Amino acid sequence: MSHPARSHVVELRTGGRGAPRFAGSAEPALTWRVESEAEGWSQGSATIEARRGGILERHVVQGAQSASVGWPFAPLRAYETAEVRVVVTGADGVELEPGAWTAVEAGPLRPEDWTAAFVAAAADDSAGAPAPPSARDGATEERVRDALTAGGPDRLVSRFRRELPVSRRVARALLSYTAHGVVEFRIDDEPVSDELLAPGWTAYRDRLLFSTVDVTAALSPGEHMLGAWVGPGWYAEYFGFDGDFFRTWTGPRALSAQLRIEYADGGVETIVTDAEWSATIDGPIRFASVYQGERYDARLEDDGLAVGGTLTGSAPVVVLEADPGRLRPAALPPVRVTETRAVVDVVESATGETILDVGQNLVGRLRVRVKGAAGTTISLRHAEVLEHDELGIRPLRFAAAADTYTLAGAGVEEWAPRFTFHGFRYAQITGVEPGAVEVVAEVLHTDLVRTGWLSTDVPEIDRLHANVVWGARGNFVSIPTDCPQRDERLGWTGDLQVFAPTAGYLFDTQAFLSSWLEDVAADQARIGGIGPLYSPLIDQRLFAPAPMAAWSDVTTVVPSVLRRQFADRGVIERQYPSMKAWVDVVRGESVDGLWEKGMQLADWLDPTAPPDRPAEARTDPYLVATAYSFRSATLVAEAAALLGKDEDAAEYAAVAAGVRAAFNRAYVTPAGRMMSDSQTAYAVAIVFGLLPDELVAPAGARLAAIVERGGHRIGTGFVGTPIVSDALTISGHRATAQRMLQTDELPSWLYPVSMGATTIWERWDSMLPDGTINPGEMTSFNHYALGAVADWLHRDVGGIAPLEPGYRRILVRPRAGLVSRAEARHDSVFGPIRVEWTAADPALGEHSPLEATVVVPPNTTAVVDLPGREPVEVGSGTHRFAP
User: Fold this and answer.
1) Is residue 806 part of a domain?
2) Taking residues 629-642, what's their average pLDDT?
3) What average pLDDT does the segment 458-465 reach?
4) Is residue 209 domain-shared with residue 133, that is, in the same domain?
5) Cα–Cα separations (whole angstroms), residue 69 to 12, 15, 72, 189, 518
6) Domain tally, the chain
7) Which of the residues are catalytic?
8) Which CATH number fits the domain that encloses residue 285?
9) Does some domain include residue 257?
10) What are 335-379's pLDDT values in tens digits?
11) H or E element: which one contains 11?
C-alpha cells in the first residue's frame, strides 16, 4: 500500500540565523522552511498566525515567498512575548499541518524603553589621560611603543556591583546591559552569558548595542549580587599606525544595565544602574587593550562580586550624561569561543626560547592551567608565523599582542584574558617550564552559522578553501575587519565589498552584515554621503574621508549581495538612502560620465606593486573608478525598481548608461582592447557588463592571452582578484581560469598553500620563498580579500549559484578540469542544496561528461546545465544524472 508523500514545516525563525534569542527589532522578519518527500513541491500560499494577549491574528502571504517576510502584525512592545506559526498550502492546493508555535520574545526595543543611567567608577580619571606621543610630532618609535604599552588609568578595568535581595519567587527575569567599553556581566560572580566583548564595536556616536539575557534561573529567593567587569575594548583603544595613534573616546569606562523582574505573584520590579551602585578600578586586571594584550595579577583577586564579598577600593559610582537615543538591541550573533585547539608542537627558537604551535593560524586567546609560586609571572607573546625560527612579530607593528599572568600561588590556577584577542598560530611562553603548564587555544569570533562547504579530490584546492573559511572566522569579530593581529583591525569597506559573496555562501551573514551596514550608513551621513573607507570611523585624521572606488561602493554592493543571497528585501529598504547618496557623490565627482579625479586605491596590492607602495597597480585607477561608478549606478537603479521608485529607477539607469558609453569611449578601442592592458581592466569590463556584446569575445581573448603569457600567474589586486576567473569563464576561457587555480608559482592562490599557509594572506608574497617576511610595512597572514576567488569556486567548480534571490531558483553548472570530483553544499534560506559530481573522462577537462547528484530544496527550482546536455529545469527533490 502506497502512502502520499509528506510535507511539513520544519523551521520558523525571526531575524537572521544565529541571532540572539531576544528580538532585535519590534518588527522582526519571518522565515520558514518546509521539508517534503514530494518532488517538485512549492508553496502556493501561507497563513502566518500570531497569538498574544489572548488574541489570534492571521495574515495571508500569496505565492512562494517564505524568506525574510515582513512582520505583518502590530509592532512588538518591550518585554512582550508573542507566539507565531505558519500554515502552508502547497501549489497543489494541499494544506500542510500547521507548523509549531514559536515564541518571539522581546526585551527593551526602543531608546524610550531604557531607563538605566550610565555609571562610572569615581576613581576613573582616564578621560584625562594624555594621548600617546606621536611620530608625527617627532617622537621616536621606542617612545610611542612605551606609551602604548604603559599602564595607566585608561588601560584599567572597572568593576561594578549592587546587592540584590530577592524576597519571593521569580517568574521571569530579563537583564539588558551595555557599556562604554566591553562588558562581562555577572550574577553572584558567575557570568550571565557566554558572549564575549559585548556590546561589540559600532559607530558609538550613533549606535550602541545592548544584549538581553534571561537570568530567571539565577535569581532564587535570597541574597544576590549584580556585578560587571568593564574593560576599555574598542571604545577606549588607541587606534592608528605608523607611530601616529589617536584617542577617540570621550569619557571613562561606563556600565548601563536594567533588570526587569516579574514575580510569580504578579509584581514587577526594575533594577537599573544608578547612584546606588558602587565601583572600583582596583583589581587583578592591571592592563587591557585590544592591540597590546592583557596583564593579570592573581594576587590582587578579591571576592567583591560575590554575595557578602568585599570589593577592593569600592566607592559610590558617578552617574554620567549619556544619550539613550543611540541604544539598539543587538540583532547579530554574539562573539563567543567556538572551538578549542590543542598545542601540536613545542619549538625551541634560535635563541633558546620556547614557542608553542597550535597548528592553525587563528584568532582568539590562550587558556593556561598552571601551578607555581606566588609572584611567578608567565608571559605569552603571539605571532602568526615564524621567521628563521623566531616569532615573526615585525608585521604586528605597534601591537604588542602579549599577555601576562602573575600567579597567586594557591594550587592549580586557570586563566584566559577577558578583554583582548590575538591573531596567531605561535606563542612564545616564558616564566615557566613548558612541562609545568597546560595550554590550549580558544578560537573566538562572531558565531555565524556555517552554511557552505566545498570538497574536491585535489588537496591543495581543499586547503585553499579551508584557508578562506579560517580567514572569515578570524576577521569576523563583531565587525568584518582587514586583519586580526596588528595595530589596525579596522572595518575596511573595500575588503568586505569584494569578499561579501564568498562570505555569504560560507556563513549566514545576513544579520551580521546588516548590522554593520547600519554603522556604514551612520558614518556616511556624518561625512557628506561619502561611503567611508572603513567603519566604524575613528578619527578623521586617520585617513581623511574621500570618495574611493571599490571601498565606498560597499554602500551599494553589499546590500545587493545580501538581497541576492538571503532574499532580504528589507536590507535594500533600509540602505536605499545610503546607496543613493553614494552614487550622487560619484555623480558630483564625474565629468561627462568619467570619474577621473582624486586619490584612488583602485587595484590595491597588484602583485607588481613595490612592497612600500601597494597602490601602484598596472590598471589605471580612474578606469577602475569609472567602472565602479557604472556598477553602483546600476545597482541603485535595480534597487529603486525593486522598491517601486520608478522615477529613481529611470534616472539611475540613465546615469549608468551614460557612464557605460563614456567608459567605452575613454578606455576601450574599437577592437576590444583596454587602454590599461591588464588582467583587472579586462575583468571589470567583462564582469560588470561595461562592454558591448560584440566586444566581450575579443576582450576575453586578450585577457586569456595575458594570463597565458604570464605563466597563468595572478596579475590582479583587490579589485580584479574576485572576478578575473569569472571574466575568463564568461568569455569562453574557462580552461585558462582553471589553470590559474592550479599553479603554485608566485604570485598565485596556491603559492601560500605550498608555503604551509593555513589562512589567506594579505599579499600574494606575504612570505618570500626563502622564509623571510615581505619587507613591506604592511603584511598580514590573515586577510580574506584575496580569498574572494572562492565565490567562483562555489559556482563553477561546486556548481551552486543563485539565479533568483535566496537561491529560490538555482543554477547548477559544475565543470571538471580544475578537479575531477567535487561536492558542494549550501544551506540556503529555503533549505539545503547539494551538488555532487564525478568526471567520467577527466582528460576532457571542462568538456568531460559528469555523473551528478543534485539535491534541490522544497519551494525552489534548479536549472541543471551539465556538459554535453541541454540544460533542464527541475523542481525540488533528489535528481541523478548519468554521464
Assistant:
1) no
2) 98
3) 98
4) yes
5) 11, 10, 8, 41, 20
6) 5
7) 488, 762
8) 2.60.120.260
9) yes
10) 999 999 999 999 999 899 999 999 999 999 999 999 999 999 999
11) strand 7-14
